[in-house]
Model the fold of this input.
Amino acid sequence: MLKPTRADVLVFAPHPDDEVIGCGGVIQHALAEGRRVRVAFTTSGDGYPRAAAKLLMKPESDLTPDDFRRLGARREAEAIAAANVLGLDASQLAFLRHPDAQLGKLPAEARTSALQGVQRVIEESQPSRVYVTDHGDEHPDHRVTNELVREAVALAGSVPEVFTYLVHSGGDTRWPLPGPRYETSAMDGITYPTGVRWPPPVRVDLTPSESERKLRALVAHESQWALDHDYLARFVKSEEIFWRVAIQPGSGYK
Done:
């Protein structure tokens, strides 16, 4: 009998809402094809002062450690609600609870522990496909999540296909732009997105109903939607885009 943690498709999200931003459509496709899906969150998004201040209705300067714990609990609950919209339940989610906004500053021992946690999820899931944020993403937590996943996959006995998705490029204002498809944008002599090849090698088409469900899943992340709904809505398009990653088993990654 298969463990309930086994999954054909495994999505790693640095924070609750990244799983929908990057893979809300892919998750729907996998479920429609009868594939098992699991989502792992490296942090619970509990280090975001603007979100904590909005949630607790107090100035950022008055926030306490307990306020950030409450934010983390709220964001995990929102992740479960968003998963329900997409067709998943709480048993298919893994919250690793590493420190939000601090992944790039972990001391060696804590980073080793984080890597071991990611390895456990991969070993339990035995996926054929893994999705994770791209190393060209501007957010440090997103880059470190990419590094941890790639290192863990390289250490695995059998290597799944690995695809990356992009969230942050251009300070959340320069990319992506509104519109049905992902395109580049040129501002101040810089073409966005930066740090990735363009065009993306994988474009996954979404139907109008799939895009609408993705939007509802994003709205379920209520604390984030209240702060950044204009930005988040720009990721609801007629497609999702990904980059393939080549990893050599047992010898690091490239």
Summary: DSSP finds seven helices and nine strands in the chain. The first strand starts at residue 9 and ends at 13.
